[in-house]
Fold this protein.
Amino acid sequence: MLRKFSTLILPDQNKFSTDVNSLLNAAAKFNEPVDVLHLGADVNALKSNYSVIKHDLIRKVNLAADARFDDFNYEITTEFYKQFLLKNKYSRIIMGNTGISKEILPRLAVQFDSQAITDITEIVSANRFVRPIYAGNALATVESDQPLKFLGIRFTNFPKNLPESSNGVTDKIIELPVADYLPSDFKSQVRILENTIQKSERPELPKARVVVSGGRALKSAENFQLLYTLSDKFKNCAVGASRAAVDAGYVPNDLQVGQTGKVVAPDLYFAIGISGAIQHIAGMKDSKVIVAINKDSEAPIFQVADYGLVADLFKAVPELTEKL
């Protein structure tokens, strides 16, 4: 049985990215031993990813491989986590604030008579956390005395670069026997009918250095090509959209930026033809520099923009693209 005062981080299954570094930096705030539990279908790929990590607080990297983890069946994943936690004692569990964790973290917390605290932007102390409320218009400091805390962090508020360390984790990697935690005859009430992965050469929205977002004022899916052409002028640039543009069918919903979409904090954010509804602003207001283009001079987006241009986007965007 592992030491009580320690942290377990749970990266999204089958994925390895710099988001793992954000989880580690969040866990380091507690200055206690950190374990990792990463599920996937290809354990060798995960071993290769973790072999380059160096971190002073990491005690173990637990890897578990099973084809069932490839389907993103949240009941199967949650059951594995539950059985692992019954055998290993921790003081807190940390996941990222992703679509996957939003399914798993509350399911897991209720199994241990606990409550998940999500969308954490700051860890004040071992028991106190800051999270936005009212679509980001206010920050709440919440305190929890739960013996086992389930925490969901906002990646954009925790750095993706690890502090310098000479302590590698290669000799700390352990491959777990899946059968010890998840019986082969485990029956899930959920049946996955189809998994669709949209592939793109562009970076994911939360990881992009520059984001070019468009709103309903673009009027059609074809007109979004103006934004793609503009985005090609920048390195590490992604295209986003407001909920109104997504609801109108101009772009798929995985491009939505806002309270009910992706939360981004790039170095440069373009809001083009976006009025600035409070739900959209909640997802991008932490951007380093915000540039707004809108023909309505009273649009709320100008209240948060660092630079604003009152102009017809169909004239301004091609001109901006040409000058860049």
Q: What stands out?
A: The domain at 205-323 is CATH 3.40.50.1220 (Rossmann fold). The chain has a mean pLDDT of 91.
